[in-house]
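Please check this.
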Amino acid sequence: MESQNLADFPRPVHHRIPNFKGSYLACQNIRDLEVFARMQEVKVDPDKPLEGVRLLALQSKKTLLVPTPRLRTGLFNKITPPPGATKDILRKCATSQGVRNYSTPVGLDSRVLVDLVVVGSVAVSEKGWRIGKGEGYADLEYAMMVSMGAVSQGTPVVTIVHDCQVIDIPEALLEDHDLTVDYILTPTRVIATGCERPKPTGILWCKISCEVMGKIPILRSLRYRERQAGKDVSLQDEPRHLLGTGSQQPPPLSTVRRPQDPHQPESCSGQGEDGPSNTVYIGNLPRDARVSELKKALRELGAVPQRLTWQGPKRRAFLHYKAPTSAQQAVSCLQGLRLGAATLKVALARQQKAGDETGGRADEPYPDCHSAVSDL
C-alpha cells in the first residue's frame, strides 16, 4: 500500500489498521447492506478508515458505540452529538477527536445490545477470515461483548478495506479466538462471505496474559464476574499456586472506621473545585456486607487502594488512591461490581478537605498497593 501510494493519512501505515485512498467511498457501500438499514445500535472501531461509517451512523441517527483505545478506561463510549448538531459537528463527532469530546462511557451493566459490528482489518479473505494488527484487540473486544451479552453468533460483522487487502488467508492461521467477518466492503465491491466458521463464544482466559490483564481494568471486572459464576478463569501465564485456594494468602489489610458526619451527602460522584479526585466512592453496600468481602473483591480485580475508609452503617466506603489517574482506572475496573445480590455504585468522589470524608483525623494507610497485588 505504501509502495503503490494507496495509503492515506496517517502514514506510514505499518503497525496500524491502514487508512487508504477511497476509504470514504468504501464506507458509503454500507448503505447497500440491509443489515445496516434495519439496525439501530452500531459498534464501530475507532480506526481512521472507518470514519465514514461512524459519520453515516450518526447521520442516520443510530446509536454509535466506539471502543475505548486499547480498552484502557472501559469497553465502549457512546457518541452523543450536541442537540441540533450541524453536518460539520457530526463530522467532528466521527473523528478520533470527536470520540474524545462527544462521548460518554458505557458500563458493564448498561444492557447494551449491539446490532452490527464494524471492524478494521490489515487483510481479509473472501471466506471471511481476518487478520488485524496482531495485538488481538478486535478479537478481545468481541469476546468481551459476548461475555456481556451484547452480541450473539447472529450479530453481523463488517470490515472495510482496500481491494488490495482482500487476499487468500490459509485457514491454518486461524485460532478459536479469531473474529471472522460476514461482509467485506471495498471501494469497488460488496462481498458477502457466507462464513460459517463460529465466532468466539466468550473470553478464552487461557489466552490472556497477566500483562494484558494489568493493562485492561474492565477485563479484570469481567474475570471477577466469571469467577463468581464458577467458570475457569485461569490465565495463560498465571503461577499455579494462585489458581486454587492454596495456603498462600495475602497479608491482612487494615481498615479505617470513622464516625460519620450526619450532613455528608449520600452521593459523592463528581469532581471537586481543586481538580480531579483521587478518591473513589462505593455506595449501595448490602446492609450485612463485611469489609473483608470488599477487600477480597478489590484484590481479585487488581484495584487495591492505598487506604480504605469503611462506613458500613451508611452502606458506603471510600477508596483512596495515590493519583487521580489510578482512581479513574479503579472506577472503570469496578463498574458492575456486586457484593451478594447488590450492584454497587462506583464513582469518583468529590474533593474533600482533610478529614471531611471521615469526620476525623487522617486515615491509616493501606499496605502498599503494588506489593498487595503482587502477593495475591
Remarks:
- The two ends are 47 Å apart (CA to CA).
